[in-house]
Specification:
By secondary structure, the protein is α/β, with parallel strands linked by helices. The chain is built from 8 helices and 9 strands.
Length: 213
């Protein structure tokens, strides 16, 4: 609140600081970000990153815990130009968890985890055809699908795929997916992060094999 008051009339928390206030992101020690509805007239202040924004309108502003702040919709829009894509996705996912309206549909954020983000980055870097993400095949939701080739990739994070029951569930799921005519490749977090070239080569080879059928 002190930072907002220091920046004068109409000042509001914005950008990443607003996201922290809405609990969409965690604090990272960066300067407090404040927006003011003016192009001039505010001096720089230590510890504050000031955004002069004549286009900031009343509809973009609300209060949380008594502190003037940009609305969740405006905060997410500001984050698009201020943070890395993975952090933006994290903020949108948190908004969904808390039931905070952002003006975005679920299709805006296709991936649901850091591991899925990393696999999509791997596909881009190695110029693999873009897969569909988190889609349904019969009763199953799969991580990545190349529909024409009927190829599925599942990325297995340790947290959700450990233990004997998870092992059995994964194999039962694979049997069901193969009954729908699909092949399944499974990659661990370590494989995706430490050996992405090999993972990409395996996927590329399987796509070519199934395309040539």
């Amino acid at each position: 609140m002190a930072a907002v008051l220091a920046c004068g009339e109409g000042a509001v928390l914005s950008h990443r600081t607003a996201a922290v206030l809405w609990k969409l992101l965690k604090p990272n020690g960066a300067p407090i970000e404040v927006s003011v509805p003016s192009a001039s007239g505010r001096a720089r202040r230590p510890g504050i990153r000031l955004h002069r924004r004549p286009s900031l309108v009343r509809a973009d502003v609300t209060e949380r815990l008594g502190i003037p702040v940009t609305t969740p919709v405006k905060t997410i829009d500001d984050l698009r130009r201020a943070v890395a894509p993975a952090e933006l996705r994290r903020a949108i996912r948190q908004a969904e968890v808390f039931g905070i309206q952002t003006g975005l549909g679920r299709a805006t954020v296709q991936t649901r985890s850091e591991l899925e983000d990393r696999f999509m980055g791997l596909c881009r870097r190695h110029r693999l055809p873009r897969p569909e993400v988190n889609v349904r095949i019969g009763p199953y939701e799969v991580d990545f699908l190349w529909r024409a080739q009927r190829l599925i990739v599942e990325t297995d994070g340790y947290r959700y795929h450990r233990g004997s029951q998870a092992f059995e569930d994964d194999h039962e799921r694979d049997i069901g997916l193969r009954a729908h005519g699909c092949d399944i490749l499974r990659f661990t977090y370590r494989q995706v992060t430490e050996d992405p070239g090999r993972v990409a080569a395996v996927v590329q080879r399987e796509l070519e094999r199934r395309t040539g059928r």
